Amino acid sequence: MPQEFQNKRFQIFEETITISPDNPVNFRSKIFLLVDKSVFSSVEGFAYFVKSTGRATIVGQRTHGDGVSNDPVIGMLPESGMLFRFSGTAGFNPDGSINAEVGTMPDIEIEGRNKDERLKKLINSLN
Asked: Which domains does the chain have, with CATH numbers?
């Protein structure tokens, strides 16, 4: 956990939710999720979930982050009436880093100029 969060000014919460399907699918093959720096916000939340649960192998480049938190806090400045918003929470990666700052690191890094090149490299590595 970052040092700035290691004091009594912040409250740290951890929540675990277990969801069981009514009709589970018996899929047993490998699943890969291809990510890059354009992954952020809600899609980042999905990448974080996949990495945290081990449901798939994350492949590609580090994501942009900022998808592991609650809805933003919205406020208004009293004199100007200007609206602002900010994330009132910080989502932590399993290694203790802040997801909004560093994103999600893939399990397998694959470089390439674009997503098609990275996908082709992934497919070739599986053959």
From this structure: 29-126 (3.90.226.10)
